[in-house]
Structure formats: structure tokens, C-alpha cells
Amino acid sequence: MGYNREYICFSSDLIRNGCFQKLTFVVTIYLSCFLIRQVGGSIHEYQNESFIRRSNSFFFHGGSEGLYASDLHIDPDKKGSSSPEDNHLNGKSFIRFESITFRRTKESAERKNEMQQKTGLVEAIIVEVKDREKIGGSYLHSAAICCTPDLSKDGSCKVGEVIIHQDPNNPYHPQRMQTFFEGKNEDTTMVLQTVEINRTGMYYLYFMFCDPELTGMMISGRTVWRNQGGYLPGKMAPLMTFFGLMSLAYLGLGVVWFLWFLQYWKDIIQLHYHITAVIGLGMCEMALWYFEYANFNATGSRPMGITLWAVTCSAVKKTVSRLLLLVVSMGYGVLRPTLGGITFKVLLLGLTYFFFSEALGLVENLGNIDDLAGKARLFLVLPVSLLDACFIVWIFSALSQTLEKLQIRRSMAKFALYRKFTNSLAISVLLSIAWIGYENYRSCMHLIKLLIRVGSVVF
């Protein structure tokens, strides 16, 4: 009797009222999208980084970000509503060099003359992607990056400097800032300066030197990159709006679900509480990501605490969503009151997925935004993908068995609902796989283009 009362939601009267159809719709639409993955900051810090040799030059990649052009038309009402420092930065995009220090080796410094004012040159070069071919001697039909005595004969460049082809119509791109060592000093500090960005594009920063005697030099300090609307990089700026809208969407879904709860409160079973938990986790996840991006945009660095909570909330939601789909597919609440002997296997799969999903989220959101290696991410993406595949296979295998049992018992109403659920889930999985394939293709093409661009500048 207790069993029949507990699972009364699946009675014929309630099916006619539409509770189970709504339940199926919500589970399919909002939980099957778990396969679509969610695709760190504008302050780039350098701690005793070394230079790499390319051709006849030495370089260090200081960062790369998409930057919008500075807004020259600033609303006067907004300008007067903040502090003087904020007013100065409001609407401007820039790259600021802060505490950039170069340290050469003691042997290199001792070879210089104490009386000389300039005994070593380091250049910071800001180049937009479409201007990358202006770096180096390609326009002089030379593979050299640094100017040589032969190339300097016609006055095209100065010996010891990086070759930059200046366009008369756009003489400020690429931009170079020079810093000199003095006498036998082992250290030199770059002048604190801010380079304003007046053209929208993808910008790269390189620190370069041409003197082989500076081999072994290290760089420390940081650069601050800012867009006109804040510190979020160009590729991440739309995400703040996205998470804000998704927070409102989850809030609306929560209100609708609460009203359904009130309407069918006498027929609530444990499964409904699990769905409520997933919706609540979705609200918290989107709200946390929104505040994380808003804080990032305001300060230029990711708030560690909020980021950790957002990543954890996201991992918990994904795990619970997958487990909920799995137990529903097994007929939990329809054919069986408990999972029986497979409970341990289900929980083990869920815990394993949570561990790798949490680790992947931390690597993605706490790493450098311009990291080209991504070895740690690749190491974690593979097990997460395999676990996703395990969930998919197990879910559809369980659905097949559940449909077969319902057909044998001639529970045609439940059979029809589960068949619709299976079809909807299959379509969602196919769309998710297609989207993941498209995203992977775009990511691979972006990485290839990025490596080509970097190579065309430094080779």
C-alpha cells in the first residue's frame, strides 16, 4: 500500500492531468543539455621568465588579447559618477606596463664599460594580428628579425633593433617601447607607461632583444590589459551578459516549477525533489558565474573564492543531472522503488565524474587565458569525455530495458511517455554531439591560426 501511495504520481488520473508530460518535458530539455560544455586574467604577471631564441633575435611572449578601440564619445553623466581615477580610465582600452624589470646575467654586465650610458637594449613591441608581417625583414627579403649591418645600409633599420616596417599612413602600428641597461647594472626597469588602443583587433605583446651578450636575461613584472568596458578580454566580455540572462531564465524556470509543485503537492515523490535541486543548482551556478565575471571585469583579476564556488556548483549540477537522467532511464519511480544492487555503481560513476569535472573546471578557469599548451586541460578532457560516453551508453541501455518491461506489462501510457522521452533524449544527444564537434573544430582552427600568427611574428 505504501508503495502505491508513494508512486501515485504515475496513476492514470495524474497522467491525464499532464504532470508526467510536464515532468518529461522539463527533464529532457533542461537536463539532457548536460553534454554541451561551458566554454585567467587581464593582468599578466611575469616571474623571472626567460627569453627564447628565434632567428637572430630573442623574445618573450607577454600576452595576447582581443581589445576594442577606446570609446572617444563618453557619456558625461557616467563620467561624473565615479572617482577621478575611474573617470580617467572610463571608456578607454589600453595596455599598461607596471614594474617591468629586466635582469641580465652578472657575466654579461661585467663585460660592459662602467662609463657607457647604454649597454643593452630591450624592446617591448605591441603588434596587431593584421600587422604581424611588419615585424622582421620579410619586406627586405630577409629572414632576419633583428637589423644587421648589411640591412641597415639603406637606412631601413638600425643595427641592434628589431626590424619594423612603418606604414606612412599608420606610423604608430606596430608600437615599440625601448628600455636600456646602463653601465654595468644588472637590472633595468621599464618606464611606467600606458599605451592606449585606438583600433579594435587582436593584439600581441612581445619583449625582444637582439644582443647575444644578453643571453640568459630574465623578465619580471606585469602588464594590465583593459577594454573600454572593463578588464574582461574581448572573447570573454559577452559571457557576462550571457550568464546574467541565464540567471533570469533559471529564475523564471524556478517560479514555474514552484507553481507546478503547489498544483500537484499531494503527488510529489522523491524524484521531484531531485529535479528541484538541479534547478536550484542551475540558479546558483549562473548567478555565481555572473558575479565572477562582473568582479573580473571590475578588477582585472579573477576572485578566487567566487570562482571556486562557481566551478564546484557547476560540477555538482552536471553530476546530479547525469545521475538523474540515468535513474529515470532505469525506471526509478515507475518500475522499481529502489535501484537495488546497482546503487554503488551509480554513485561511483557519479563521484568519479564529479572529481574530473571539478578538476577540469579549475584548470579552465584558473589558468592563463593565453595558455597555448593546455596539456593539463587535455589530460582532463579525455576522462570527462569517456565518462560522458559511459553515461550515454548506460542511459540508452537502461531506456531500452525499461521500454521492454513496460511493453511486456502492457503499461501503454507509461510506454508512450518513455518512448517520447527516449526520442527527445536521442535528438538532444545528437545535437549536443554535433555542437561539441563544431566547437572542437573551431577551437582547433583557432589554435592553428594562433600558432601560425605567433610563428609568423617570431620566426
TrEMBL record:
<feature type="transmembrane region" description="Helical">
    <location>
        <begin position="421"/>
        <end position="438"/>
    </location>
</feature>
<keyword id="KW-0472">Membrane</keyword>
<feature type="transmembrane region" description="Helical">
    <location>
        <begin position="306"/>
        <end position="327"/>
    </location>
</feature>
<keyword id="KW-0812">Transmembrane</keyword>
<dbReference type="Pfam" id="PF06814">
    <property type="entry name" value="GOST_TM"/>
</dbReference>
<feature type="transmembrane region" description="Helical">
    <location>
        <begin position="203"/>
        <end position="225"/>
    </location>
</feature>
<keyword id="KW-1133">Transmembrane helix</keyword>
<feature type="transmembrane region" description="Helical">
    <location>
        <begin position="339"/>
        <end position="356"/>
    </location>
</feature>
<feature type="domain" description="GOST seven transmembrane">
    <location>
        <begin position="238"/>
        <end position="442"/>
    </location>
</feature>
<dbReference type="InterPro" id="IPR009637">
    <property type="entry name" value="GPR107/GPR108-like"/>
</dbReference>
<keyword id="KW-0732">Signal</keyword>
<protein>
    <submittedName>
        <fullName>Uncharacterized protein LOC111295508 isoform X2</fullName>
    </submittedName>
</protein>
<feature type="transmembrane region" description="Helical">
    <location>
        <begin position="273"/>
        <end position="291"/>
    </location>
</feature>
<feature type="transmembrane region" description="Helical">
    <location>
        <begin position="376"/>
        <end position="400"/>
    </location>
</feature>
<dbReference type="GO" id="GO:0005794">
    <property type="term" value="C:Golgi apparatus"/>
</dbReference>
<feature type="transmembrane region" description="Helical">
    <location>
        <begin position="237"/>
        <end position="261"/>
    </location>
</feature>
<dbReference type="GO" id="GO:0016020">
    <property type="term" value="C:membrane"/>
</dbReference>
<dbReference type="InterPro" id="IPR053937">
    <property type="entry name" value="GOST_TM"/>
</dbReference>
